[in-house]
Design a protein that fits this description.
By secondary structure, the protein is mainly α. Helix content is about 60%, strand content about 0%. It has a three-stranded mixed β-sheet with strand order 1-3-2, with helices on both faces. The protein starts with 11 loop residues before the first helix and ends in a 6-residue tail after the last helix.
Length: about 500
């Protein structure tokens, strides 16, 4: 591969640029590992040192990326005859360089330090249901991220600049068009479902479930799906996440005695993220061709495994016997009852990561609107709980009882991740489009699931998505994989068919 070895046709400047990129990416990977440790294993009082460590690494990464020599090498490569893969590497490095070179290193360092300091404060505020503890840190992070956006493009909408950190290849306008189509499909569908008199099982997993046994079930699920333990691990954290590279892709989940589905679906979701990381080419590690395309594509992988596989009836036909072996209190639950319970549309679920597949997207709309208003200066941080609860009532029909189940439930703002939330819904739309294309190529994926044959689907995703890294921009990648531009059409068809059948909407 051209990214790994010099050939007679490879310009010397390209090899020099790639060497610098590898150093930058390895610093980034080290920072990511320290962040994982802070959320999973670090002693409770380790924050003062960890914030300095992460701040130093973020500054070093920024300094390496914005060196004059990097800019000079990029300029030297303009107009050179490059292979498509080499041209993609140069394009992606230039994209990062041109954004980073506009931002002062000290601002990058301050943002990193602030996010590290904010994490334990968020955890404490959530535990104590007290937004006021976290609010001053959100105010500082909003201000810092506004400054960051202003440096990058003073003439652009600040939120659009931040969104590009997570989805660099789709305009915010295009993203909003897709989100609008999803919302316009789901709102009347959810109303129909709530008016439906079709009975479905909703309590197949009612009761108390030992969390140690839940962890055994989660590990069984990962093993069944083909998670390579030699390149990963499962841990617990306050908010489920995945982190790593193609050599070391770790997942975390959390366990609640009263809700075993929460841990299981979260674990499968994070498995999707890890599978994407693990599917990136080994030989392209620490280069753009060995990096994920962006958060919309990353979320498409997690949502595909969580929803199209983990919430399918075929999955429960395969996996329910394992669950029943571990939990005697539900050993009489049938696969159909499990399928109905895991796909019920809730009347009043305030937590995004526990939401059903449909109302989930109204949770995203709420966050999208609030953080846009925060960044624009149209909403005061102190007013977030009230506005959050008002929007929850407007979109979902109920008000959270505490800040912990309202505006403190997500970890993202403690990371300064303003602009991330839209990628969840974009990822769901992309997942449906990719899954439909996989079915067209592979045949009955549900039958493969019933047989416990998951490598075939993983192989299709690796071939059509993972192995390309950042060779293609987002829409081009989707078009290469599916033959069509990225849209919400497959998603709206999928949910209309699935939930129409589940709740008998077509005969209503």
């Amino acid at each position: 591969m051209a990214t790994e070895s010099s050939t007679a046709e490879t310009p010397e400047a390209y090899d020099q640029l790639l060497s610098k990129v590898r150093r930058i990416k390895n610093v980034e990977a080290a920072s990511m590992l320290l962040s994982w440790d802070q959320q999973v294993m670090m002693p409770a009082e380790g924050t003062p040192a960890r914030s300095q460590q992460l701040s130093t690494l973020s500054a070093l990464q920024h300094e390496l990326l914005t060196e004059d020599e990097v800019g000079g090498l990029l300029d030297e490569l303009e107009g050179e005859a490059l292979s498509p893969e080499q041209a993609a590497v140069v394009r992606e490095v230039r994209r990062e360089y041109e954004r980073a070179v506009r931002v002062p290193t000290d601002l990058v360092q301050r943002i990193s330090q602030k996010t590290s300091e904010a994490l334990p404060i968020w955890e404490q505020a959530k535990a104590e249901n007290d937004w006021s503890q976290f609010a001053p840190h959100v105010e500082e992070l909003v201000d810092l991220k506004r400054q960051y956006a202003e440096y990058i493009d003073p003439d652009a909408d600040a939120y659009e600049v931040l969104f590009a950190d997570y989805e660099p290849c789709l305009s915010l306008e295009r993203a909003e068009e897709i989100l609008t189509e999803i919302r316009e499909t789901l709102v009347p569908m959810i109303d129909e479902i709530r008016a439906s008199e079709t009975p479905i099982t909703t309590d197949a997993f009612a009761g108390e479930f030992d969390t140690d046994v839940q962890e055994e079930v989660a590990r069984e699920a990962l093993t069944m799906l083909g998670y390579p333990w030699e390149r990963g691990r499962l841990d617990t954290s306050s908010h489920p996440f995945s982190s790593g590279t193609q050599f070391d892709a770790r997942v975390t989940t959390r366990f609640k005695p009263e809700d075993p589905l929460d841990a299981l679906t979260a674990t499968i979701h994070e498995f999707g993220h890890a599978t994407y990381n693990l599917g990136l080419p080994d030989e392209a590690y620490a280069t753009p061709l060995g990096e994920h395309r962006g958060l919309s594509v990353h979320e498409s992988q997690s949502r595909l495994w969580e929803n199209h596989v983990g919430r399918s009836e075929a999955f429960w036909e395969r996996f329910l016997p394992t669950v029943n072996e571990h939990f005697a209190q539900i050993d009489d639950v049938t696969p159909r009852e499990a399928y109905e319970s895991v796909n019920q549309v809730y009347e009043d679920n305030p937590i995004r990561v526990e939401a059903d597949e449909l109302t989930y997207h109204l949770h995203i709309v709420l966050r999208f609107e609030i953080e846009r208003a925060l960044i624009a200066g149209d909403l005061d941080v102190a007013d977030v709980p009230e506005v959050w609860n008002d929007k929850m009532e407007e979109y979902l029909g109920f008000r959270p009882e505490t800040d912990a189940e309202g505006c403190l439930q997500d970890i993202h703002w403690s990371h300064g991740s303003f602009g991330y939330f839209p990628t969840y819904s974009l990822g769901s739309a992309m997942a449906a489009q990719l899954f439909r294309a996989a079915e067209d190529d592979l045949g009955d994926v549900d039958e493969l699931t019933r047989e416990g044959e998951f490598d075939t689907l993983k192989g299709w995703l690796r071939e059509h998505v993972h192995r390309h890294g950042q060779r293609y921009e987002t829409n081009d990648l989707v078009r290469e994989a599916t033959g069509a531009d990225f849209s919400a059409d497959a998603f709206t068809d999928y949910v209309t068919e699935k939930y129409g059948a589940l709740y008998d909407l077509n005969s209503a």
